[in-house]
Amino acid sequence: MHRTYALSAYTRQNFGQRVQKIPLDAGFSCPNRDGSISRHGCIFCPPNGSGSGLRERGLNIAEQWQFWFDIHNTNNNLNLFTAYLQSYSNTHGPIEKLIRVMGRLKGLPGLTSLSLGTRPDCLDDEKLDLLAAQRDELGLSEVVLELGLQSACDETLTHINRGHNAQSFAEATRAADRRGIKVVGHIIAGLATPSGREGLAELLASVDFINQLPMHGVKFHNLYVCHGTALARLYADGQYVPLTQLEFLTQLSEAIMHLNPTTIVHRLNGNPLKDELIAPDWAANMRAMHNAIRSHFKANDIWQGKKNGAESGPPDWFSPDYKGDIP
Ligand code: SF4
User: Fold this and answer.
1) Where are the beta strands (DSSP E) in 86-173?
2) What is the pTM of this model?
3) For residue range 9-25, what is the model confidence (pLDDT) as tens digits?
4) 219 and 186 Cβ atoms separated by less than 8 Å
5) Smallest CA separation from ligand 1 atom 3, residue
6) What is the pLDDT of residues 292-306, one digit of tens each?
7) What is the torsion angle, in degrees rounded to the nearest 10, for the CA atoms of residue 228, residue 189, residue 13 and residue 286?
8) Ligand 1 centre from 41 Cα, in Å?
9) Domain ranges for the chain
10) Any alpha helices (H) in 138-242, and if so which ranges?
11) Distance 160 CA to ligand 1 centre (A)
12) Cβ within 8 Å of residue 138, ≥6 positions away
């Protein structure tokens, strides 16, 4: 039984096979780190900003692509790939840089789609038009923006030093959607707040917020504490206590039941690097987390949209083999 509309089902339905993401580091920075907004970053963000490390080893975009392409093509016989510009904020800075980076994607073997991680305040009409044009320029099936909402509560966003508010996320999502760019929003459970931590009510408010937007997909994360972050100092001082695994599973279950059943679920939990994680311990093992989520959903009969339009059972389109239209 398929309990969510998973990315794997969407790709099978739309591409006939798995589409592998290749992480690329094009050397962008983040306005929340380079001083444009702040030099401190979001309180949970480790200093490397989720980089793959290949750029630090001197590999340019084509070489990074080839590194991952060879692994996936040889070992897993995959031939469709997404260029995933993941590190930092990949539309930050002058548009000329974005134009140069787009040019470097041309002709990469197996390139099928483009996905960029960025911030809503790093997108203007010119950059959105440029990205939308890449469907034709690069012959792509789709262009996707991964935007962090994290929380719909502006007080929380201020506390985590996010540097933008929820309205900014909504406006960027609508502007992207008007151009046919798909948006995947990120939401974090258990965010630090001035009084301690967000609870279920705040998480559901964030889900309700994205349910009202033209949202293609969502990534859920659990907040974890990494070395070198402001959150690590709060944790050390006892001012932040991470969710227990059971608290996270309970909150995630409610969030999934409230999520629009047509929104594609790209991720259900965060995935810290082992050497960057301080706490909680349970966040370290990705496979164990996947099993825990699967078991919890099954034991409690959880499915996406159970409390939001899919009350009678998981819709047919949760199956990778579904061939019909999605309402
Ligand atoms: S916007 Fe992203 S890269 Fe920038 S500080 Fe926040 S989490 Fe880190």
Assistant:
1) 111-118, 142-150
2) 0.97
3) 999 999 999 999 999 99
4) yes
5) 88
6) 999 999 999 999 999
7) 50
8) 6
9) 7-306
10) 154-159, 166-178, 200-211, 230-236
11) 10
12) 102, 105, 106, 111, 114
226 close to ligand 1 (CB < 6 Angstrom): no
How many whole angstroms separate alpha carbon 127 and alpha carbon 131? 6
Closest ligand 1 atom to residue 50 Cα is 3
Is 165 in contact with 118 (CB distance < 8 Å)? Answer: no
- CATH class (in words) of the domain with range 7-306: alpha beta
SS3 279: strand
Specify the pairing of strand 192-193 against strand 182-189. unpaired
Measured by CA distance, the residue closest to atom 2 of ligand 1 is 88
Atom of ligand 1 nearest to the CA of 87: 3
Whether residue 304 contacts residue 265, with contact meaning beta carbons closer than 8 Å, is answered with yes
Strands 196-197 and 192-193: antiparallel
149 Cβ closer than 6 Å to some ligand 1 atom: no
Token pair recorded at residue 40: 């401190």
pLDDT of residue 71: 94
Backbone angles phi, psi at 252, to 5 degrees: -60, -40
Backbone angles phi and psi of 298, in degrees to 5: -70, -45
